[in-house]
């Protein structure tokens, strides 16, 4: 697979966005790709706006920041309308962000609801990870699974992988014109 993706993940500090981006970066490496991962947050990490970026490629990465995103994931309202002008698909947590008029490229996926249904509210970022790899093939499910299994105890890895797979299913349903 030819890989050249630029991803932005945005939300509120404490939602596990930096962790999500580092896990995804490891999965890209697991699949044999090159990756640069960065994050940006204000003076208050928990509760304030935070973003994490990934640039993934099969070639050498010369510029480590996102210029033209392939995908944006928004997990909290604090991201506001920052990404309204982005041409790329924007996946947002429809279980947290209020329904309102959004650009056509914004698609709601209930990341937090997926996690709550698993009785694991902290796994919303893992549901988002599943939606990411379903929407853009930046890393394979096998690579994500390998990284998750290395980083978590077996019981937690199982829940997180279920969240990833449920996030993939929800994103697939949304991309086919359904509501998740």
Summarize the structure.
The chain is α/β, with parallel strands linked by helices. The protein contains five helices and six strands; from the N terminus they run βαβββββαααα.
Could you explain how this protein is built, in words?
It is a single chain. This protein is of the alpha/beta class and 180 residues long. The chain has a six-stranded mixed sheet, covered by helices on one side. The longest helix is centred in the C-terminal third of the chain and has 22 residues, at 154-175. It is globular and about 40 Å long. It has helices spanning 17-30, 111-117, 124-135, 141-151, 154-175; strands at 4-12, 34-41, 49-57, 71-74, 90-93, 106-109. Helix 4 runs antiparallel to helix 5. It has one domain: Pyruvate-ferredoxin oxidoreductase, PFOR, domain III (Pyruvate-ferredoxin Oxidoreductase, domain 3), CATH 3.40.920.10. Strand 2 and strand 3 (49-57) form a beta hairpin.
